Amino acid sequence: MTVTRAEYCVIACAEAWRGAGEILASPMGLIPSIGARLARHTFAPDLLLTDGEAMLVGPDGTVEGWLPYRQHLALVTGGRRHVMMGASQIDRYGNQNISCIGDWSKPRRQLLGVRGAPVNTLNNPTSYWVPRHSRRVFVEKVDMVCGVGYDRAAGARHHRVPRVVTDLGVLDFATPDHAMRLASLHPGVTVEQVREATGFELAVPDEVPYTREPTPQELELIREVLDPVGARLREVGA
C-alpha cells in the first residue's frame, strides 16, 4: 500500500508524543492534530487532548473532562504540556519567529504576533511543524525571536525543543551545542534536497534513517477515522 508524504508527516508528528505519559498535547495545525490523536489512539494512551478551549477530549472528540484556565496555565508553566507550533522563521538553535518579517520597528510583513511563544518555549517542551521546508523559513538569523532557542534559554528549567517536522523530514537538536541536526528523511527525499532548502549549515550524521513506516493499523486510523476526507493531502501534496 502506497504511503503518502502527508502520512509520513503525520507519523513524524505523532512520534513527538511517544513516551510522554499523562501530559497535555497542544498541536497547532491539521497534520500535528492528526498526529496527536493518532498517538493517543495507539502508543500514547495517557495523552491529554483538548478542544482548544476548556474541555479535555478523546481522540474522537468525545468530552472526557473539564480543563479550567487556571489548571491549563499550571500545566503550561510546569512543563507538563508539549506544544507543536508553526514557524514563519526558525534558526539553527531553534529560535522561532511568527511576528514579523524585516526590522521589527518597520517590518515588511506583519504576521501573527509573538502571542504565547515565549511562555510556551521557556516553560514546556515545544516542537515545530513546517509544511514547506525552504530557505525562507530555515534562516541564519530570525528577524524577531518569539519562540526561544537553545542559545537563549539558559536557566529555563523546562525548555526543550524535541523536534521540527517538515514536508522533507525530521530535525532535532541532538548535537553537543544544540545546533539543528537532520534526524530522518521522509522516503523519496535526499540529504541534498534538505541542505538546499535550509539557509544554514545543518549537522548531518553519516547515516540518516528514513522516517518510519506507518503500521497497517495506523494507516487505517488516519484514512478511515482521523481524516477520512483527506484534508492532510491539501497541506502536504504527493
Could you characterize what this model shows?
Pfam families: CoA_trans (PF01144). InterPro entries: CoA_trans_fam_I, NagB/RpiA_transferase-like. Keywords: Transferase. This is CoA-transferase. GO terms for molecular function: CoA-transferase activity. By secondary structure, the protein is an alpha/beta fold. The protein has one domain: 3-Layer(aba) Sandwich (Glutaconate Coenzyme A-transferase), CATH 3.40.1080.10. The protein is 25% helix and 18% strand. The chain is built from seven helices and 13 strands. The chain has a nine-stranded mixed β-sheet with strand order 4-3-2-1-5-10-11-12-13, with helices on both faces. A hairpin with a 2-residue loop joins β11 (164-166) and β12 (169-172). α1 (5-14) crosses α2 (30-41) and α2 (30-41) crosses α6. The radius of gyration is 17 Å and the shape is globular. The mean pLDDT is 92.
What's the total count of β strands?
Answer: 13
What's the CATH class label?
Alpha Beta
Strand content: 15-25%
Number of helices: 7
According to CATH, the fold-level topology is Glutaconate Coenzyme A-transferase
Largest sheet: 9 strands, mixed
Q: What structural class should be given to the helix and strand makeup?
A: alpha/beta
| Low-confidence sequence ranges | none
* Whole-number mean pLDDT: 92
Q: CATH superfamily name?
A: Glutaconate Coenzyme A-transferase
CA distance, first residue to last residue: 15 Å
Shape: globular
Helicity range of the residues?
10-25%
Structurally, how many domains make up the residues? 1
The oligomeric state of the chains shown is single chain
